[in-house]
Amino acid sequence: MEAILKIKGLKSYYYSGQNVIPAVDGVDLDIYPGEIVGIVGESGCGKSTVVRSLMGLLDPVSSKREGGQAIYLGKDLFQMKEKELCRIRGKEISMIFQNPLSALDPVYTIGDQIVEIIRIHEKISKKEAYEKAVFLLKQVKIPSPEVRIQQYPHELSGGMQQRVMIAIALACNPKVLIADEPTTALDVTIQDQILSLLKELRDQLGIAVILITHNMGVVAAVCDRMLVMYGGAVVEEGKCTELFENPCHPYTRGLLAAIPSIKERKEKLYTIPGQVPKMKVPVQYCRFCSRCSYAQEVCHEKEPGMQGENGHLYKCFYTPQQQEKEKCGPGGVAL
Known about the structure:
Blueprint: E1 5-16, E2 19-31, E3 36-40, H1 47-55, E4 63-72, E5 75-76, H2 82-88, E6 93-96, H3 100-103, H4 110-121, H5 126-139, H6 145-148, H7 158-170, E7 176-180, H8 188-205, E8 208-213, H9 216-222, E9 225-230, E10 233-239, H10 240-245, H11 250-257, H12 297-301, E11 306-309, E12 312-315, H13 320-325
Parallel strand pairs: 3-8, 3-9, 6-7, 7-8
Antiparallel strand pairs: 1-2, 1-4, 4-5, 9-10, 10-12, 11-12
Helix pairs in contact: 4-5, 5-7
């Protein structure tokens, strides 16, 4: 199967005074129709910057895309003029933002906002757009859509607001849907409903979904493949079942070890020691070495390349067998 979207060597940097921060530093990602790909990692690892670079939504004052390609159906999105990109953005590639209340306009009804998106990209009457808006609200399982469509965002609950955002994203039948931490501000029950809805829509419509999250449980519940990011780079990638059963990078092992388990009673949850270091361009060392207790001299001198097989790749000088030999636990913490 041919990938619908290929991101190659994406680099996006932030500028702070004289410092150049590698927010995204050489990320590769292939997206196939009908699959859900999760991008996971701590806050500040570059997850959201990847998709904002893709959508052309970086702040031009403090950030800039410095390299890479995004091949969508044979065309490079990064080489398109703004007018051409606008025809794709919101229509063929849509995005659900993290905070629905800040993404929705408070002075317009739900119906007005959905109808506007439809009529920007499709040449249909206002009445036809309104009927489609009602259908979309039904599709995302909002009860009494004929009533809700007349309401303003503040009149809806957080879960309902997020469903409206999904309806807006689906308004023009996109081929790729980006969900940037869509469940962060929601309670656990509503989170489960939103995630189940995303899976249902993927199955019904065959769209590709990129899911940004810091929650490994969310990835396990809905994703087919996952990428683990740290310090602006992908440190491990592969099928979710494989990564959860056989994590190879010490950072991935640390993230999994930090998940509470109902099978074990612990007085204190595991945490990865230290903090994400402030990196500057160029990065010429292993990004995780300052938090990894079995890092060797080579880890401080050069950055490891990807290794692995069968689609399960990781960026570390050590194989899992060598990690075991060093008697190291999750996250490279010595046992």
